[in-house]
Amino acid sequence: GQNIDQPTEMTATEGAIVQINCTYQTSGFNGLFWYQQHAGEAPTFLSYNVLDGLEEKGRFSSFLSRSKGYSYLLLKELQMKDSASYLCAVRAQAGTALIFGKGTTLSVSS
Amino acid sequence: GAVVSQHPSWVICKSGTSVKIECRSLDFQATTMFWYRQFPKQSLMLMATSNEGSKATYEQGVEKDKFLINHASLTLSTLTVTSAHPEDSSFYICSARPLNNEQFFGPGTRLTVL
Fold first, then answer.
1. pLDDT < 50 regions, chain A
2. Which 2-31 residues of chain A touch chain B by CB within 8 A?
3. 3-state DSSP percent of chain B in helix, strand and coil, to 5
């Protein structure tokens, strides 16, 4: 079966750094995605990893270890607007749908 | 970037009626479209995969006779919720995949069945 785990909730303060972990067990692997979703809205794409290592995009970075079935999303210099749900998703085979984790709700306080 | 639209963005209907939701890729041709459903505080659950010109492939537990999917063209897929009931109230999101294997999400449709 397919299983993607991530923490349910996290809290942090403005200006801080937070790391959201994701572990996965899937029948195959063709890429790992991170999405941000605000309440009542569709997910917006943040990052994509298919090879091991760190991908950096401004304040957001994503890391992947395929051998460990592990990824994390790193958010730096947190802002209040970063309060949202962060979804980890895996594509098991090329061209197939993404399989989503349950999401991590991040609350950023001042 | 690629844009996917959904219509309507929200709909309220009476129990027993049918509701059609459209998903359009506005600036690219989508060989495959995916339909997801998201209940409050839960993640996106794949309902079905739709390929242009062929029958949709439904995930286990999703009733194909209740959730009718039509993908008649490379830019349009429709999801019809037939005989809707309150438990079908959810956020329905489509995504579209062009040939380059990326996946772009629509803005979602909030369905409320009274």
1. none
2. none
3. 5, 50, 45
